[in-house]
Here is the input.
Amino acid sequence: MKTWLLAALLLVSVVAAHAVEPAERLANPALEARARAISSQLRCLVCQNESIDESGADLAHDIRMFVRERLTAGDTNAQATQALVNRYGQFVLLNPPVESATYVLWYGPPLLLAIGLFGSLVWLKRRQTVPLEAAPLNPEETSRLDGLMHGTDA
Amino acid sequence: MKRLLYLLPLLLFMVLAGYFVISLRPNHDIHELPSAMIEKPAPAFDLAGLGDSKPLDLDALKGHPFIINFFASWCVPCRVEHPLLMRLAGQNHLPLYGIAYKDKPADSTRLLATFGDPYRSVGIDQDGRVGLNFGVYGVPETYVIDSTGVIRRRFVGPLTAETVEKDLLPLLKQLGQS
Here is the structure.
């Protein structure tokens, strides 16, 4: 029992590791919270599938410091993010904006799902129209069946 | 109508295959990111010079087209690229400046002393801030900047004989004439 509890405890305690070093943190908790929120939405350009908040890469550290500097200097969240987009392009955003270049990305999957659902519905509908009960035998079939049943094959 | 439906998988396959052909073509690195800084003014910098180099100041460099190469002593691909830079410097196309990116000055100096110094002068960017402003995400990176200070071309990763021949030299020629 105890082992199970421990295992369960360990399971729920698995959370995303953060790479933010103590020395990076801002003294002002409100600013630090904003910096963390921004960082979690920025892609580390070295590892490419981690946010800079989670990445231990050197460049991620630099960008975290950059974000904090901008916030301390009075930037809004949007301004700090835009400053990085200006440098690294939209790839730096983990959550790409909806615009003509990303329509396929955003609307492609729902569209494919819709096509799939529609196709399935059509298929199901068609299957239902096939009669479940077989048509009754005609007289010729009945007499043949009778013959088979009684061993006198026609 | 029904026949068209049967063609749908083929059509989908062709779209996918087309995508793969484009993105898996040779000499195309799928990890290379699109550049946001092309055709934009290079971010200002004024870096302390390495060794006896003069400070590397963007404003002072403007007026002529030039090349900036981000390098570091800890960077392996930079060593691969280095002989090519030496050759370029020898051919005297355009002034080539170096920026030592996140590197200890003593290490950069030793690197250049050991393998040769292709740069007209070298600026020290130890905290990587100038690199960050350029959108550098790994060394080496090479930027071609025109006389007005606008970034014209960016090369991510080591230059190769092929990229120099097909890409860099034509551009340098064009910039040198204008």
Summary: DSSP finds six helices and no strands in chain A. The mean pLDDT of chain A is 86. The helical segments of chain A are 2-12, 29-39, 58-72, 77-88, 103-129, 139-149.
